[in-house]
Amino acid sequence: LSSELGYTKRERDINVARIGFVAAELTRSGAACIAAPIAPYDDARLLVKKQVAKAGGFYLVHVATPLEACIKNDRAGVYARAIAGDIKGFTGIDDVYEPPANPDLVADTTKTAISQIVHEIILLLERDGYIGDR
User: Fold this and answer.
1) Cα(28)–Cα(44) distance, rounded to whole angstroms?
2) 37-93 confidence digits (pLDDT tens)
3) Which H or E element spans position 68?
4) pLDDT digits over 24-53, tens only?
5) What pTM value is reported for the model?
6) 62 contact partners, CB below 8 Å, separation of at least 6
7) Contact at 8 Å (CB) between 83 and 92?
8) Smallest Cα–Cα separation from 9: which of 93, 79, 99, 89?
9) Total Cβ atoms within 10 A of residue 37
């Protein structure tokens, strides 16, 4: 969707906006959409939330992975390249990450099992009538 983009704030915002547009269109068509962009800036996340929420439900799940865990689990080597200075503007290395002020759920896989996080997401969806008995 955005393979031509890099890591500047402008490019990150464009990427998140494109993903948000597709998510909103899918939601408007009645589909469920799960999107997992790297969205380091709160203003871009809030814009997408407004866009998607007009079409249906929106949940912001903050995957609060510590930087050390990201580096440790980096199979593609992008963190190593960013640390070496080969990638500029990389979130968490030489660019900021603005944690969401009001996420619907905070998930940290270094502290909580993935099965528990999935269960918590299902509970949100059940609470709001998207799945389960209606």
Assistant:
1) 20
2) 889 999 999 999 999 999 998 999 999 999 999 999 999 999 999 999 999 989 999
3) helix 67-72
4) 999 999 888 899 888 999 999 999 999 999
5) 0.83
6) 99, 100, 103, 105, 106, 107
7) no
8) 89
9) 18
